[in-house]
Amino acid sequence: KQSLDIVREIHHVREQGRPFIIMFCGVNGVGKSTSLAKVCNWLLRNDMKVLIAACDTFRAGAVEQLKVHSRALGVEVFDQGYGKDAAGIAQEAVRHASKPEVNSDVVLVDTAGRMQDIEPLMRALAKLVALNKKKATTGVRAEIGAGGWPNSPQ
Q1: How far apart are CA 19 and CA 9, in angstroms?
Q2: How many CA atoms lie within 13 A of 73 on its CB side?
Q3: What backbone torsions phi and psi does residue 86 show, to the nearest 5 degrees?
Q4: What angle do CA 53, 104, 131 make, to 5 degrees?
Q5: How many other β-carbons are positioned within 10 Å of the β-carbon of residue 74?
Q6: Are 66 and 79 contacting, i.e. CB atoms less than 8 angstroms apart?
Q7: DSSP letter (8 states) at residue 73
Q8: Which end of the chain is more exposed for a tag (fewer CB within 10 A), N or C?
Q9: Reduced to 3 states, what is the DSSP secondary structure of residue 78?
């Protein structure tokens, strides 16, 4: 069972030597990347070290948008460009965040927008979640949907 106190959850996962993963998922155009930047700012104000994983390898300008946010926030963006496997990028970002020289408390994973009725995109999202759930005790902590606020999956 998860706590609603996300800072406590982050500290619990960090005590186990792993970064906490928050994945931003939702329909195209609902503000996932912008919400990610706002959450990043909040985490920084709570003394967390954050790494942003650029896993929207589909939308033109997605990586550049995150880099603009990251420069303003002073955090690193982990990206491998466009047209790549988002699940693999997220896995590599978590590995990178776990390195002693990086030592991130939280990895914020930006994903490509998708409609829930487009099966190939949903399969790709399921792969992204499944591969990275193995690396996190809490799995996916937040989902940004059409309502624009995190919902905690069980």
Answers
A1: 11
A2: 26
A3: -60, -40
A4: 50
A5: 9
A6: yes
A7: H
A8: N
A9: strand
> What's the whole-model pTM score?
0.79
Residues 6+ apart with CB under 8 A from 9: 2, 3, 20, 138, 141
Length of the chain: 154
Structure tokens at 108: 């914020």
CA distances from 118 to 107, 112, 129, 154 (A): 27, 13, 17, 23
CB 142 within 8 A of CB 24: yes
Asked whether 151 and 30 are in contact (CB, 8 A), the reply is no
3-state DSSP assignment of residue 50:
strand
3: left (phi over 0), alpha (psi -120 to 50) or beta: beta
SS3 (DSSP) at 129: helix
Treating both helix axes as pointing N-terminal to C-terminal, what angle do 62-73 and 32-45 enclose, rounded to 10 degrees?
Answer: 20
Partner residues linked to 109 by β-bridges = 23, 53
